[in-house]
Every structure is written in C-alpha cells, then in structure tokens.
Amino acid sequence: QVQVVESGGGLVQAGGSLSLTCAASGTFKSITAMGWYRQAPGKQRESVAFITSDGITKYADSVKGRFTISKNNAKNTVDLHMNSLRPEDTAVYFCNTRAFVGLSGPYDYWGQGTQVTVSS
Fold this sequence. Notes:
This protein is mostly beta strands.
C-alpha cells in the first residue's frame, strides 16, 4: 500500500506565501505522477497542479504564475510553492500520488488534506 502525507498548510494574509509538502511512502513499484488538488466549502475538488515522473507539469489557469510544483524523485516528495495568495485560494489541499503497485496500476492514493486559509 501507499501512504500519502501532506504538511505545511496554515493561515496567511492575502498576497503572502505558503509551501506545502507531500511525501509518499510504502510498497510501490513506481510513481508516475504526483499532484495537488483542492476543495473549498461547497465546491467540487479541483486539480491545482501536477508533475509527472518525467518532470512535466500542468497548472490550473487560476494558479498559473503564482504556484510552482516541484518534486524529489529520490525522496518521493512533491512541494507546492504558493505565492501571491488570494482569499479564493482558501481550501483544503489534497495530495494525489499515482503509482504502480507490483504489476498492477496505476492507482491513485490520497492524503488526508491540509487546510490553507487566506485572509483578506
């Protein structure tokens, strides 16, 4: 199985910065991609950014130019650096890890989420 743990959320004023870290551990053959999703109250979960094992990145239009995703393949971690935060970025942020387990997969594994609150 794969365990996914997020850290780094918190409260910040509009215009400020925060960084989130996600670490994947457990028994898996390989990770194909890791990414961040978020869910605000009353809204559906949406993709924020993801990065593949080859380093290809994709961002939601709403965070382009403000957020940066990076990874460390050796440590199976991914970071999300968030700048110029806005109140509308307030949400629970979830890390997703897509991995092969043995000869099966890929499967999606989720963390428990970390709260990001941006005050105006």
